[in-house]
Amino acid sequence: MFLILSKLLPLFVYPVGLSILLLIIGLVAHRYARIRWTCHVGALALLLIFSNPWLSDRLVQSLEWRYRPSAEYARADAIVLLGGGTRPHLPPRPLSEVNEAGDRVVYAAKLYHAGVAPVVVASGGYIEFYGTLVPETDAMTELLVALGVPEEAILPEDRSRNTYENALYVRELLAQADSNEIVLVTSALHMPRSVAIFERQGFSVTPAPVDYFVTEGVPGLTTDSGWVGNLLDLLPSAEHLDRATRALREYIGIAVYRLRGWL
Q: How far is it, in rounded angstroms, from Cα 16 to Cα 50?
């Protein structure tokens, strides 16, 4: 039940969901001009604010820039690769595919080939109501092998459905080998919550973030972009609305996980 509620309830807090809710209230309260006006203006303001590139980038940056990738990583017991970067091998796809966060898989393979750890733990199950019964670890394993990681060096963890369960089941898996030092690979936006959860499970975590939305010199107005570039930096963008929503999802996740004592 918690899993279902954790996926559904935040939808009414994110900018798009909350805006739709306000519009519905405005329609229902059509006889009350002040309520209708307030709801409609509030919905418009939410969409304009969170789709603003300047605000969106800074909201994302506040999470992404807490950890930076290292030029060199110390030897660890395992590389832990979190799911979320793949799409399953289902027709008509010719193979398992990567999504925008697919560089998680690429980076994990790179770290393995660099000798950072002897094994890669591919952690990710499936959520029944998302329409597929194929665990994410299957796709990650297929792609890691395609990138030259030996299958015997990949430890699949296919039960987890959220980040807490990632850490819980990886703990069970690695406890058999008394492995505690891990290099954690996930998206930069997701890394602060992930590090806290894995450390709560007793791991010594070295973050290896990838999939950055905000890079140096990007956020905010620049003096050399000209007035056209500066104007575009202020215009609403569906892409930046999505980014801001992702950041809000992480902050909500941090708050909820902290209340449950998971980090």
A: 9
- pLDDT at position 130 is 60
Q: How far is CA 201 from CA 56, 171, 189, in A?
A: 32, 7, 20
Residue 249 in tokens: 């999802």
Indicate the pTM of the whole model: 0.89
Cβ burial of 34 (10 Å; 0-12, 13-18, 19+) is: exposed
Identify which has the larger pLDDT, 219 or 101: 101
Hey, how many other C-beta atoms are within 10 angstroms of the C-beta on 57? 22
Residue 157 is encoded by which pair of tokens?
A: 């963890």
Nearest Cα neighbor of 162 from 196, 185, 194 is: 194
Residue 148 three-state SS: coil
Distance between CA 236 and CA 242 in Å, rounded? Answer: 11
Q: How far apart are CA 140 and CA 138, in angstroms?
A: 5
Structure tokens given for 110? 């790179």
Looking at the chain, how many residues does it have?
263
DSSP 229: H
Could you tell me the residue ranges of all domains in the chain? 2-64+238-259, 78-210
Q: Does domain 78-210 have CATH number 3.10.310.10?
A: no
Report the C-alpha gap between 185 and 169 in whole angstroms.
Answer: 16
Partners of 207 in beta bridges: 184
CA 192 to chain CA mean position, Å: 10
